[in-house]
Design goal:
This is Vps62-related protein. The chain has about 230 residues and is mostly beta strands. The protein contains no helices and 21 strands. Strand 1 and strand 2 form a beta hairpin.
């Protein structure tokens, strides 16, 4: 197993590591975007964020009979201190094109931590009944009061994800944003439940979205809420 360390700006510089399978070292810079540190508006902590290309597939819907295709991906092997803001979904089985946000907090003694694991997950969907080649399920993090999630997660089984698979962010670092375009729904799959996956979008210049997706357990218009990271 190879680990690649990517040096990145954080006021001066910090390290944002991940495992990129099959990647060329010369390609590292193109995988790195928007590495920056932001301060709390209450001056009670700092948060560093970076975007890195996803590298590990967790689920695809091959064999389900769905009218469209989907694959869901994540970043494997963060070093200690870095947390994932969510998984990436795309409407194809191709190699992944997406970048997702990683987060690292610098907490202040006496203040609430900036990042925390979810307390539970809300079940959104699984492929049971679809006859698909792969087992998979999709989940929404449930954060404790004062925290929100910036995306969703998936598994390659029907059990809940690990609580450490995604982080919740203290709400003063976030802004409510918009549900974007449809990525995929399972119409035609024959699964026992319905799901639709959507992009998360921001029209605000001072808010970045995580690169993850919003999942809803029906085909109706998406209701949210969804959040992005306030970067100034």
């Amino acid at each position: 197993m190879r680990f690649l360390l990517i040096f990145s700006i954080i006021l001066t510089f910090s390290f944002f590591p991940l495992k990129v399978e099959g990647a060329d070292h010369s390609d590292l810079e193109s995988r790195l975007q928007h590495v920056q540190t932001i301060k709390s508006t209450q001056d009670n902590g700092k948060l560093t964020y970076s975007f890195t290309q996803v590298n590990t597939e967790i689920y695809n819907d091959r064999g389900t009979g769905s009218h469209s295709d989907v694959s869901i991906w994540y970043i494997r092997d963060f070093l200690p201190g870095w947390k994932s803001a969510g998984y990436f979904a795309q409407g194809s089985y191709n190699n992944p094109t997406g970048f997702v946000m990683g987060l690292k907090a610098e907490d202040v003694p006496g203040a609430a931590p900036i990042l925390t694991d979810p307390i539970d997950f809300q079940f959104i969907w699984n492929d049971s009944g679809s006859g698909g080649q792969n087992d998979g399920s999709i989940w929404r993090p449930i954060c404790k009061a004062g925290y929100v999630s910036l995306g969703s997660v998936a598994t390659n089984h029907y059990s809940k994800p690990s609580l450490s698979s995604i982080t919740c962010v203290r709400q003063d670092f976030t802004v409510e944003v918009n549900v974007g375009d449809l990525i995929w729904n399972d119409s035609g799959s024959g699964a026992n439940s319905d799901v639709a996956l959507y992009q998360i979008k921001s029209n605000l210049p001072y808010v970045l979205t995580s690169g993850s997706f919003y999942a809803q357990n029906n085909y109706s218009a998406p209701v949210g809420p969804v959040y992005g990271l306030r970067v100034q």
